[in-house]
Amino acid sequence: MERPTLKELAVQALSSVERGYDLLAPKFDATPFRTPDWMLAATITALREYGPFERGLDVCTGTGAGLEMLEEATAEPPTGVDFSAGMLEQARAAHPGADLVRADARALPFDAAYDLVVSFGALGHFLPDERPQLFDGIFRALRPGGVFALPMSRAPRRTQPAYWLLSGFDLAMRVRNAVWRPRFVMYYRTHPRPALLADLDAAGFAVETTPMPGVGELIIARRPAG
């Protein structure tokens, strides 16, 4: 697959989140932004002790990388939700058996329908004050006893180049959003682990973590059975 050009990436970055991903969708899987296969494999391995799972939902599914994991981890065909029509079009072509729903993840249209919910690489698209809406919707989408599995890669240290690369990206994005409309919300350092755990706890989840060797950890947020 051909990678997007610098001009295409620039146009995408100056668009809204929805329009930007509509434009990027046909070439998205050729970019570094697609969830890598090693992350999907590590998540499946870490989830084995918490299953089996019957029905799964991938929040902010994009072109459907998470659907691949759910097709292996759940008994029924998976569901993917995203608000980019372009991304869903690509996901539909790659996963014709999946149920794909166009919706805003801050207002998920599901009620006690799934026993496993996953999301990969999407938290940067939500500002800190939007996470409660996201997590409340995921809580409602789960059946009692169901699991929200959130993989987290190991955060780079200040001594590592990746730390400064991500910090620089966030700074550039803040400057862009201060001077340009519509905003494009995508940040790497707005969802630190303690804040995520606190927000999940506030949403009503029972939270634990399990290691993913060589990757980081998997946050397991369970809707209480009661």
Automatic annotation (TrEMBL):
PANTHER family linked to this entry: 2-METHOXY-6-POLYPRENYL-1,4-BENZOQUINOL METHYLASE, MITOCHONDRIAL, METHYLTRANSFERASE
Residue ranges occupied by any Methyltransferase domain in the UniProt entry: 57-146
The UniProt record lists the keyword DNA-binding: no
Name of the protein described by the UniProt record: SAM-dependent methyltransferase
GO terms under biological process: methylation
Keywords: Methyltransferase, Transferase
Domain of life: Bacteria
Species for this entry: Nocardioides luteus
Signal sequence annotation: none
Pfam families linked to this entry: Methyltransf_25
